Amino acid sequence: MNTFVNLTQAEEDEMIQKEFQALLQDYAATRHKQKVEIITRAFEFANKAHKGTKRRSGEPYIMHPLSVARIVVKEIGLGSTSICSALLHDVVEDTDYTCEDIEELFGPKIASIVSGLTKISGGIFGDKASEQAENFRRLILTIPEDVRVILIKMADRLHNMRTLGSMPPAKQLKITGETQYIYAPLAQRLGFFLIKTELENLSFKYEQPSVYHKLEEQINEVTPQLEQSFQDFIEPIKRLLDSYKYNYDITSRIKSPYSVFRKMQKKHISFDEVYDLLAVRIILKPKPGENEKANCWVTYSALTSIYKAHPDRTRDWINTPKANGYEALHVTLMGPAGNWIEVQIRSERMNEIAEHGLAAHWKYKTGSEEQSDLDLWLKSLKEMLDTADYANAVDFMDTFQLNLYSTEIYVFTPQGDIKKMPAKSTALDFAFALHTDIGVHCIGAKVDHKLVPLSYELKSGDQVEILTSKTQRPQPEWIDLVTTARAKSQLKSLFKKEYKAIQKAGQKLIEDSLAKLELPFNNTTIQRLLEYYKLNNVVELFASAAKERLDLSKIETVIFKEKAQSRWVKIWKLNFGNAKNAKKGKATPSESPDTKQKTIHLTDADVGNTYKIAECCQPIPGDPVLGFLDDSGTVVVHKLDCPTAQKLKSSYGNRILTAEWATHKVLSFLTTIEISGLDEVGMLRRIVKIVTEDYNINIKSINIDSKDGVFNGQLAIYVYSTEDINLLCMNLLKVSAIKSVKRIS
Question: Are residues 95 and 136 in the same domain?
Answer without folding.
Answer: yes
